[in-house]
Design a protein that fits this description.
Mean pLDDT of chain B: 90
Number of strands of chain B: 4
Number of domains of chain B: 1
Strand content of chain A: 5-15%
CATH superfamily of the largest domain in chain A: Response regulator
Shape of chain A: elongated
Number of domains of chain A: 2
Strand content of chain B: under 5%
Largest interface: A-B, 49 and 53 residues
Radius of gyration of chain B: 19 Å
Distance between the termini of chain A: 70 Å
CATH topology of the largest domain in chain A: Rossmann fold
Shape of chain B: globular
Structural class of chain B: mainly alpha
Oligomer: heterodimer
Structural class of chain A: alpha/beta
Helix content of chain A: 40-55%
CATH architecture of chain B: Orthogonal Bundle
Number of helices of chain B: 12
Radius of gyration of chain A: 22 Å
CATH topology of chain B: ABC transporter involved in vitamin B12 uptake, BtuC
Largest sheet of chain B: 2 strands, antiparallel
CATH class of chain B: Mainly Alpha
Helix content of chain B: over 70%
Chain lengths: 407, 305
């Protein structure tokens, strides 16, 4: 009996050890930004960094400036790796803002699970919360559509800034929508022009069956075929991890494989399986592949933001973030930028002595004119709510996994 | 020919994994006549157990033990963890409902599936993990079959799957517990009256079926690389399809079905389009359920009239 108890204890300890080990290291969602961010022990000074980043913040805190801001993102569900990082960056933005300004802004968190129905429900909850002035999110364009329709019908003055929806034209549909990332109208032609400039004649393209991916693939395909580049288009769900049969269909004369995917780890599997079958085409990944999970040397990556570790003035912000949170990826910094836009808009209203409401906050957001931001570029919006000076960056991955800006 | 051969190897690898998972579905159905929809999640936990061992041993690029030992330990851990979860499911989610209507354990299985997914999300977060098998066994290593080179990991996966399937067949046919499993599968009441400990047989069925799923999880991690908390869902559905196509309740049927689904996926992608991959696979499921519900090797249900 006693021996059995000992065995049970040993087995339990072993299981705990295994779980701890499996939890210990993860590769998903991390990016190269953690590598080049300077001394990780350096403490960020929010006062200094915020002053560097912004131009519209009022200097004197106002005691009565109170606000609740929402965050909606896929905290759980199939792309929870995006939502987790976005939530972390939102919390980081809120904490540093409150500390810097002496305010006590509150947040309400909504997990839409990357689901449209859930997004609509949360949007209604946000609208019904009279204290809530604006929100960051949702992440995906389909979810933006679902939430946007509710906001538009319920209160067009409610402002929501998407930190990662890139579908072209969507911001024009909703009065209150803004975004801190460029659109597929920028990414598609940028990608196609780059491939053409590289001398691409045959491009193999695989979308991941999401609206993000198919829209982007359509745009790149259209631009490539207009330049007489031969495009072979395929489609595969990101729930699968075996692409070997698909890789087998890549013709030997293919120059580039274009993967507009949101799961970078799948891109690495694709690259491994290409190597396994001696396929020599070069992979070009969209912004969703800009992650530490994809490190295939020689490949190219498009990103809607530069690696903020190398953005002057953003290194200390990144260090401060990494002191509190384990990892980051491309989807994080635009959330910080979006949150700052909202916070500063609220503060601007407060500075006039007025009590901020949804309409006044929206007017201030529309007038945003940040000369610099965490993304290393100015932030202001077009009449539709798109980022006025958004552009995509193209990096090449080096042998050691680092990235070199090539365009 | 090179193209066909390459795609055949691809299909065989994928089919081997499906076959291992399908065996668990089939064994449980054979004994209890219900579908354990949480089986895909058992496979997922097996994959994470293997990853845990890999991490403890220093990770793929800094192993502190020889590769063969690391892989063996990963398989052992995956089998142990998956078996433990399988047996726990049987004890707490299914046994209390054994005398309830057939719908009750099915709903319980779906609930258990979501519970395990959520548990994995909490334990491992939503971030995917990579076995990074090319660091363990270089992609260039392997066997040259005519014009193509087959990666050693693929060979390992295919051979391991076939060895385990042969061992399982032997175990069911020749061992004392295996014979009891067949007896319970054929007629539970009669087996009990003949002195077979039905509870023990059912536990053994879950234990073996889950262990095979655990092995499948490590195989997927090794050959395809990425593991994540939702990986069991689609794999589970494909394995279920394999079990139905082969003949649910039949062990050789599960193997055959797994391989057929693997080949169907590979050849659909090769000769039609990857877009139609799932359409073809799940189309097969519908066709078999309508036309031949007992599958290729299943036993048709007989009802006394």
């Amino acid at each position: 009996m006693r021996r059995r108890s000992i065995w049970r204890l040993v087995a339990t300890l072993l299981v705990f050890a295994l779980v701890a080990a499996a939890c210990g290291e993860d590769t998903g969602g991390d990016t190269t930004t953690t590598d080049g961010g300077g001394d990780p022990t350096t403490t960020a000074s929010p006062d200094t960094t915020m002053a560097d980043m912004t131009t519209t913040t009022g200097a004197q805190p106002v005691d009565v400036c109170e606000a609740t801001v929402g965050f909606m993102g896929p905290i759980t569900g199939p792309v929870a790796f995006i939502g987790e990082v976005q939530l972390n960056w939102f919390n980081y933005a809120l904490d540093t803002w409150n500390e810097e300004m002496g305010y006590d802004f509150q947040m309400v968190e909504g997990d839409n699970q990357f689901d449209t129905a859930q997004s609509a429900t949360l949007a209604q909850q946000f609208l019904d919360d009279s204290a809530m002035l604006a929100a960051v999110g949702p992440a995906g364009s389909d979810q933006v559509d679902a939430a946007g329709a509710v906001y538009e019908a319920g209160d067009p003055n409610f402002t929501f800034i998407s930190p990662s929806s890139t579908r072209s034209g969507i911001a024009a549909q909703y009065t209150g929508m803004f975004r801190t990332v460029p659109t597929d109208d920028d990414q598609g032609p940028t990608t196609a022009d780059f491939l053409i400039a590289q001398g691409a004649q045959n491009v193999f393209m695989v979308d991941d069956q999401s609206s993000y991916s198919t829209g982007l693939a359509d745009s790149v395909e259209e631009n490539l075929t207009a330049a007489d580049v031969t495009v072979t288009r395929e489609s595969v769900s990101q729930d699968v991890t075996d692409f070997s049969a698909l890789v087998g269909t890549i013709a030997d004369d293919t120059d580039f494989v274009y993967l507009p995917w949101q799961v970078a780890a799948n891109g690495q599997i694709f690259a491994n399986q290409m190597a396994e079958q001696s396929k020599e085409a070069v992979i070009f990944g969209s912004d969703g592949m800009d992650s530490e999970d994809f490190t295939e040397a020689g490949s190219f990556i498009a990103a809607f933001a530069p690696d903020i570790a190398f953005v002057e003035g953003s290194e200390s912000l990144l260090d401060g973030y990494l002191e509190q949170y384990e990892s980051t990826n491309t989807f994080g910094p635009p959330v910080y930028a979006a949150a700052r836009v909202i916070f500063e808009a609220i503060d601007s209203v407060c500075q006039t002595g007025a009590t901020p409401d949804r309409a006044s906050v929206q007017a201030e957001v529309a007038n945003t004119d940040q000369a610099d931001s965490i993304l290393g570029s100015p932030i202001s919006f077009t009449e539709d709510g798109d980022l006025a000076e958004g552009r995509f960056f193209i990096f090449q991955i080096e042998e050691d996994g680092s990235k070199t800006l090539v365009e | 020919m090179e193209f066909f051969l390459q795609q055949t190897v691809n299909g065989l690898t994928l089919g081997s994994v499906y076959a291992l998972i399908a065996l668990g579905y089939s064994m449980v159905y054979g004994v209890l006549k219900f579908l354990n929809f949480a089986h895909g999640e058992v496979y997922m936990f097996g994959a994470f157990a293997g990853y845990g061992v890999l991490t403890v041993l220093g990770g793929p690029s800094a192993l502190i033990v020889p590769v063969w030992l690391a892989i063996t330990l990963m398989f052992v851990a995956a089998m142990a963890v998956a078996s433990g979860i399988g047996v726990a499911l049987e004890r707490f989610a299914y046994r209390p409902l054994r005398k309830a209507s057939r719908l009750a354990p099915l709903i319980s299985a779906i609930g258990a599936s979501f519970f395990l997914q959520a548990a994995a999300l909490l334990l491992f977060t939503a971030n995917s993990r990579s076995y990074d098998a090319p660091s363990l066994i270089p992609i260039e290593s392997g066997l040259t079959l005519g014009p193509i080179n087959v990666w050693l990991v693929r060979i390992l996966v295919i051979v391991t799957a076939f060895v385990l399937m042969i061992l399982l067949t032997w175990w069911v046919k020749s061992s004392r517990v295996g014979k009891a499993v067949r007896a319970v599968s054929f007629d539970t009441e009669a087996a009990a009256m003949m002195g077979v400990d039905v509870d023990r047989v059912i536990v053994a069925t879950f234990l073996i079926g889950s262990a095979l799923a655990g092995v499948g999880g490590v195989m997927v991690g090794l050959v395809f690389g990425r593991i994540f908390h939702l990986m069991g869902f689609i794999a589970g559905l494909k394995a279920f399809t394999a079990a139905v196509v082969g003949g649910i309740g039949s062990i050789p049927g599960a193997m055959l079905g797994g391989l057929l689904i693997g080949f169907a996926e590979a050849y659909t992608t090769s000769y039609i389009s990857s877009t139609f991959q799932n359409l073809i696979v799940f189309g097969l499921l519908i066709v078999f359920l309508l036309v031949r519900p007992s599958g290729f090797l299943g036993r048709p249900e007989l009802a006394k009239v």
